[in-house]
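Two entries, shown back to back:
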Amino acid sequence: MYKRTLFLSLISLFLLLISSCVSIPPQTRLISPMADKAVFSECNINSIPASLKAPETSFKQLDPQHISIINWNIYKAQRDNWSSDFKALIKNQNLVLLQEAINRPDITKPLQTEQPHWHLNTAFYYDNHEAGVLTASSIPPIYSCGLRATEPLIRIPKTVLINLYPLKNSSQVLLVANLHSINFTLGTDAYAEQILAMSSVIKQHSGPVIIAGDFNSWSNARIEIINTMVNTLSLKSLAYNNHNRIRVFGHALDHVFYRGLEITAEETLKVSSSDHNPIKVSFRLSAQNKPVNPNYALRLHPHYK
């Protein structure tokens, strides 16, 4: 069944690519309602240390005792019942991490009430609208940067968005990474390179971390690459109290990893409004949270060498 779906997806994406409704920007392109125009901000290994300045007290800050997130691949908001689910799911969430998001009013307008501060890292333009990963928040980030990697077969980019958020009464800064991983490959080299590029930036950060997204982790080899990332960055994974995550070849595609935080609640919800199910998590800053040494060596998976 999945092989048939995969084949049809490849054909559909190819037709989209050669049609006039899809175009690709020449470089990383972040957009936000907080900026007058798009910002070209490519993450690199020097990005994070330069941004880790103590935020001014006038900055809005997240409550370290309650950080709520939802992670969801919204399937380009194509299904009829998507809007009602979306409005209900984002209610009372500090952070909303979306994959396959599009800069359209039906997606961005519901965010204005509770998560008005959003950035989208453009993978491509779909009907003249930016499409990619979008992270929305109840407070503005103090820093944002993006990465992108090109699908080897279909030549459409996948993107990563990294944001930093200050925490109340804490010297710690929360790093949040929103990832949509490469999907269509014959091997794992391109997949590993994308994970490595993100990991190389995140490893410069010494504070708490949340990494969430659609990892397209449908093989043992891809799971091995993810496990290497988890070990390298001293991450933990959710326990996942139910089996509602979408699986392909027996492997879950969507993941939430974290560091320096404790879980207070988590749930994966079953919906028909997307081909992925949303994951909701509530965190608090760990009482034992200690900054990780940002200068430790990155332990390489064989594919990274």
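entry 2 starts here
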Amino acid sequence: MKNRYIIFFILITAIILHGQTDQNLENKFRLGLSYEQANQLDKAESIYRELTGKASWNTQYFDALNKILIRQKKYDQSAQLLEEKIKQTPADINLFGLLGTTYYMMDKLDKTYEAWERGIKTNPASFVIYRVISSYALENRLFDKAIEILNRGKSFADDPSIFSLDLANIYAANMRFKESAEEYCSLLLKKPEMNGVVKTRIAQFINRPSAADDITSVIKNFSEENPVPIFFELLSFCYSQSGKYKEAFDSIIQYEQSAKLSGSGIFTFAQEAYLNRRYDYASQAYNYLIEHFPNSPFIPTAKISYARNLEADLDNRLVDGENWKPVKNPGQKNNPGYISIINAYERVAKEYPNNSVYIEAVFRIAQIYMERLGMYNKADSLFNIVIQKSPLTNYSILSSIASGKISVLFNNLGEAQKNFGNVTDNKRSEPENIAEANYYLARIKFWQKDFSASLKLFREVTKNLSADFSNDAIEISTIINSAKRDSLNLSTFAAGDLLMFQNKLSEAGGQFKTLADNSGLFLLSEFAKIKLAQIFIAGDKFIEAAELLENLSNDSKSVLFTDKSIFLLAKIYHYGIKDLQKAVTYYKKLLEKFPNSLYFDHAREAINLLTTNNG
């Protein structure tokens, strides 16, 4: 029994001592790293050599020693170290890779290749060997050698496709796009499930010079030699990526026919064309689907998507010219284009009264009446249909918000509060919908001169600074806080703000001008000037707006508004007066003076756009 205790004690002691030894080594290693970071490389080397001698099995210590030798350009010592290690572990392929790298740094290319060949010969039947050694060639930018090694492995592999992604990436990096596309196509022949990966890789370089033509020509040849669906679909994708939508549409039709689908490929193409604002080809695709696949389950969605596409196209042509304005005049009444779009939505609603597209169709008709035609009573009645017939959908929530806005337009603030309150009380409301409803509830309190209640609601909105309305909420909160002791003038500002929302721009302008002309109001006067400039812009009075904003941006007392004034000035010259040179001057002024401005990114994008379009 006594002997057993002695043996147990010895074992425990050995374990403890071993642990202490390991800890001592780790402490020394950290000391070596600190020397290395302090650029005391000789001291770091000394420690790493000591550690390698005591724990030759530890690859971390060995790698640290080799790296410190390389860093000091002691290439001969690195080569010697690696050769000695190879004798100890001749099956470690990475040692041969590192040895080749050392010789490459010594400008001994022959010995580099010789070291890598020695590594391959350790197990020439293993495809892993070729991929490992090729990675070292890539690290040293020896692309042709990497390609050669990978092709050697590919030549005997049971599954050559395992080399295709690596080869394709190298070819693409070296502008050899045809060879890259050939590898991807060869891969898809063996493994069509890799289609998503291939698309992602191709998308990364297809817009480089000459890449699109090279890639599509290869895929087209593959599709002719191997008329399988996947190549037609990939060809359509590549044409779309390079902006050739006609060819993309033709290819997706071939894909649909060869795969014998029920319109899913056409539908996906149409949706992507719509998202990319290629409304012409989106319309063609939706029409093709409706005509050629009448029994497809996509038909109801395709029909409403077709109407939505027509709407987006008309918006793009008629409204985009006004989108830059911070305040817009009411829509053009009885525009025949929008009437025809309403008719298209009505046909969908009539054909599918029990389908989910019915609610969307009614909602979109209501939006057009409200936002494009200014027919608010008609819009409100349709929004109420959505609320009554589909109370559990997001369209119902959006309709409540829209009805609330219409109630404000009719100066029925109590009814507006009910509508917005329905949104905040609805457990199905998304956070952004709740933020929007709270924002309008706060504005209503502001218009009602209940400034304390307004501030409380604005604080709810600004809890999420990423919300669309947070900046506006902060601005009005600042107005209230800066002028809360001057309730009379603050009430005048609130009245002007309500009139402005109700599109009574002339009356609103009178309220704001009263405040803008009163220099003793400080911040409230400056806010009023911004509002007045926005009203001028809405009425195309660009010269008056520019003069007002110029004075505001040069006023040393108006630091709070300088960046906003400069940004609006730039937009006036860009889109209103169309003096592009002056627009660029103001955009640049904003970038130089206000690098942290909310408008910084917008200004930079505008400069890039103007520079590109005007050489």
